[in-house]
Specification:
The protein is an alpha/beta fold and about 240 residues long. The chain is built from eight helices and twelve strands. It has a single domain, classed as Vaccinia Virus protein VP39 (Rossmann fold). α1 (about 25-30) packs parallel to α2 (about 50-55). Its EC number is 2.1.1.223.
Length: about 240
């Protein structure tokens, strides 16, 4: 099947999803750090890849996912059910805004998202791809507000975003009492400027760390740190 992507411990059927497997998602799934969470929520799960990577990494965690698109929800549900982690995975066909209203008392140790982030750009004419990729700042205001309401006391919100948007979201989060815990700036090559930031936000104001992460050592040659981060997941390593 052309849309089937095989990882070492699970497979992802990508059919019906506006956002396919991509580097942003797998890096978030591999690099997010949040101690040993018991409960995880993946917002905008798409294919379910981040939730499945976290299910592999965090053996005891109960993981829920939210997906607003019906076709993507059905694909994620199938991927969850076909995995060895199915007893710890659950997906909801909903927006996170409605989910919050329906489950106001739900709390999570870790909330993750690879959200849509195209702002003020040419909108994709495909409605499903538009929903998966395009957004506005109001979306991020609502997202950090959701996190402030649904994180446990020591919980973490972790997002992968373009650098400029990550800076704006960090400012929005501070208004909700969430502050930067760590930041990983992702570069294609060592001498490039970062094109993505993986930001972790929580209630503590102290102890912020920041580092770079380089994907390629040379043309078509992955760096040692990329190989190390993905070696438990990607079949090419």
């Amino acid at each position: 099947m052309a849309d089937l992507f095989h990882f070492k411990q699970f497979s992802i059927d990508q059919s019906g999803c506006g956002m396919k497997i991509n580097t942003d998602g797998v890096l978030l799934g591999a690099l997010v750090q949040s101690g040993d969470p018991d409960s995880i929520l993946d917002i905008g799960t798409g294919t379910g890849v981040i939730a499945l990577m976290l299910a592999q990494r965090v053996f005891r965690a109960q993981i829920e996912a939210i997906e607003i698109d019906q076709a993507a929800y059905e694909t994620a549900l199938m991927n969850f059910n076909n995995s060895r982690f199915s007893d710890r995975l659950k997906v909801h066909n909903n927006s996170f805004q409605n989910f919050s209203q329906e489950h106001p008392d739900k709390r999570y140790d870790l909330i993750v998202s690879n959200p849509p982030f195209f702002l003020n750009s040419l909108v994709n004419p495909n409605q499903q791809k538009k929903q998966a990729r395009h957004t506005n700042y109001e979306f991020f205001e609502e997202l950090v507000m959701f996190a402030s309401q649904h994180l446990t006391a020591g919980g973490t919100l972790c997002l992968v975003l373009p650098v400029a948007i990550a800076e704006k979201v960090t400012q929005l989060a501070a208004l909700q009492g969430l502050y930067p815990e760590s930041q990983i700036d992702v570069k294609s090559f060592a001498n490039n400027e970062p094109h993505r930031s993986i930001i972790s936000l929580g209630y503590e104001k102290e102890g912020f760390t920041k580092r770079d992460f380089v994907i390629y050592r040379g043309q078509k040659e992955y760096s040692a740190e990329y190989r190390k981060a993905l070696r438990d997941f990607l079949t090419i390593f």
